[in-house]
Amino acid sequence: MKKLLIVLLVLLATGCTTRTQFGQCVGVLDDKDPTLLYDLDIGNVFIGFIFSETLIVPAVVVLKQLECPVAKK
Fold first, then answer.
1. SS3 of 21, please?
2. Would you give the end-to-end CA distance of the chain in angstroms?
3. Which residues of the chain have pLDDT under 70?
4. Which end of the chain has the least Cβ crowding within 10 Å, N or C?
5. Are 40 and 66 a contacting pair, CB within 8 Å?
6. Distance CA 65, CA 63 (A)
């Protein structure tokens, strides 16, 4: 059962959106490109919420993949 949970965790963590056609997703502490519009990525937030007990996945989502560029200004 533990192996299945670990495999599921790895698959969902790698399923996070990290890049869009406009560039890399950014976290809370990252600098945003002023020429792009950013939006909260609901998929990444959902994965972080589901795995909130692990503390690692939500930290990665908030620090690296919270908002993704959606369009140019």
1. coil
2. 48
3. 8-16
4. N
5. yes
6. 6
Among all chains, which residue has been given the structure tokens 């692990």?
54
Report pLDDT digits (tens) over 28-46: 889 999 999 999 988 888 8
Containing structural domain, residue 53: 2-72
Token reading at 58: 């939500």
Measured CA to CA, the distance from residue 1 to residue 73 in angstroms comes to 48
Tokens representing residue 12 in the block: 């969902």
Number of domains in the chain: 1
pLDDT (0 to 100) of residue 11: 61
DSSP bridge pairs for 72: 36
Strand pairing class (19-20; 23-24)? antiparallel
Burial class from Cβ neighbours inside 10 Å (0-12, 13-18, 19+) for residue 19 reads exposed
CA distance 54 to 9: 9
